[in-house]
Every structure is written in C-alpha cells, then in structure tokens.
User: What shape does this take?
Amino acid sequence: MEDSHISHQGVVSAIHQNTIEVLIESASACSTCKTKHLCGVSDSKEKIITIPKPEETFILGEKVIVIMSQKMGFLAVFLAYVLPFIIMIALMLVAHYTKVSEPVTGLLVVMFLTAYFFTLYAFRKKLNRKFTFTIKKL
Assistant: This one.
C-alpha cells in the first residue's frame, strides 16, 4: 500500500551547504475569495520549511513541491493539539472529582501545558529528525 503524502507548493528562498529553505504560503479557505479585502477575515501566513539538501540542484526563486508523509502530519497534529487537550481534560476531571478549587485547577492546567510545550521544545532536534520533508521540482 502506498503511503499518502501532504504536499505544498513553495519557492526556494535560501540554499545552504546542507539544507534548502522553502517559503510556503499557508492560506485559509477565504484567501482566494474575490471580496476578501472587504471583510478583513482572510488569513494568509508565510512559513519557511528547512529541508535536507537533496542530490538534485535547485536555484533561488525556483518553484518546488514540499512533501511530507501524511502519517507524520497526523503525528504532528496529535503531539501539538490532541495529546495536550486529552491530558488537560483529564487533569480537570481529576481535580473536579477530588474537590480541588477552580483557581488551583486552572493553575495546574497552565503549569502542565507550559511543561508539556517546553518538553516539546527541548526535544525539537529529535523531532526535527523524525519529521522530514522532501523536495521536488515542479
């Protein structure tokens, strides 16, 4: 069974000795709307993805496709959103049933989230090795 992929079109913005940086514009659904300038809700952000330099040669400004395994995308969403949410709800339920006051519960949840995301930050190099991107010419 072939592994499905997540791909985005981007532009090579920098070339280093061992890596290539690709600028990707992440746009919301309304970014293509013709009346987006009237409502002010449109959301478009540029992101730079660092990719290990492949055998192929690329030039600055070249349009490329950045590819990531869909399985890795799901893992990233799970680590960033789902797991902390589940643990946060579990902490709140345990605190509620053990009669811990709401301010203390809120403080515990904030402390947990701070520790959790600090831990993710501390292991960012290891996570970067796991979440690898590939690049292809358009």
Observations:
- Residues 5-29+41-137 form a domain with the OB fold (Dihydrolipoamide Acetyltransferase, E2P) fold (CATH 2.40.50).
- The chain has a mean pLDDT of 85.
- Helices lie at 36-39, 70-97, 102-122, 124-130.
- Strands lie at 5-15, 19-27, 44-52, 63-69, 134-137.
